[in-house]
Write a structure and sequence with these properties.
about 160 residues; mainly alpha; about 55% helix; Tetratricopeptide repeat protein
C-alpha cells in the first residue's frame, strides 16, 4: 500500500498524520501481541514485513526500535534514527511551535526520540542524548514522558 506520512500545523501545534486504513495492519499486529496469539519473534518478523510494506509508518519503526533497545542498542538506534529522519523531513525548518504528546498521532514520534535517547546513553554518546533530550523538551515542554529526568543520568549535564 505504501501510505504517505504527513505533518500538519494547526494554531502553532504540530502533529503527524498517517492514513487510518494504512495504520490498521499495525494495530491488528499490536492486538495479536497483547492477546498473546503471536510470539515475540513472530511479532518482530511481522513488524519487519509491515515496515517493508509501509515504510512511513512511524509506529512500526518505533516498535522495532523499542524491541531492539535492551539487547541490540545499535540496531535500536538505526531504527530510531530512520524514523526521526523521516519525521524531520516533514517538519518545516521554521517550525517553532510545539507537539503535544497527548496527541495520539505524536506518540510514536516521541517514542522514537525516547529510544534514540536511551540508545545513545547506552552507547556513551552523551552529547547526542543531551541534544535529543533538549529537542524533546522544546517540542513537548510539559514533558509528559519525564524525559528531563534523563539529564540527571548524563555526565554531560554538568557541562551544559
Amino acid at each position: 500500500m505504501s501510505a504517505r506520512l504527513e505533518f500538519e500545523i494547526i494554531e502553532n501545534e504540530g502533529r503527524f498524520v498517517f492514513p487510518a486504513a494504512a495504520e490498521q495492519p499495525y494495530r491488528s499486529l499490536l492486538d495479536s501481541l497483547v492477546s498473546e496469539s503471536s510470539t515475540d519473534n513472530e511479532f518482530v518478523w511481522s513488524l519487519q514485513a509491515l515496515h517493508r510494506e509501509e515504510p512511513q509508518n512511524l509506529g512500526v519503526i518505533a516498535s522495532l526500535a523499542a524491541h531492539y533497545a535492551s539487547d541490540e542498542p545499535e540496531t535500536a538506534l538505526e531504527y530510531a534514527e530512520k524514523g526521526l529522519a523521516l519525521a524531520a523531513a516533514l517538519i518545516p525548518t521554521d517550525f517553532t511551535g510545539t507537539m503535544d504528546w497527548r496527541e495520539e498521532s505524536n506518540h510514536t514520534y516521541f517514542a522514537l526520540l525516547h529510544s534514540a535517547i536511551v540508545a545513545n546513553m547506552f552507547m556513551g554518546d552523551n552529547d547526542e542524548a543531551w541534544r535529543l533530550i533538549n529537542h524533546s523538551l522544546t517540542l513537548n515542554p510539559r514533558d509528559h514522558l519525564s524525559v528531563r529526568l534523563f539529564r540527571d543520568q548524563l555526565p554531560a549535564y554538568v557541562a551544559h
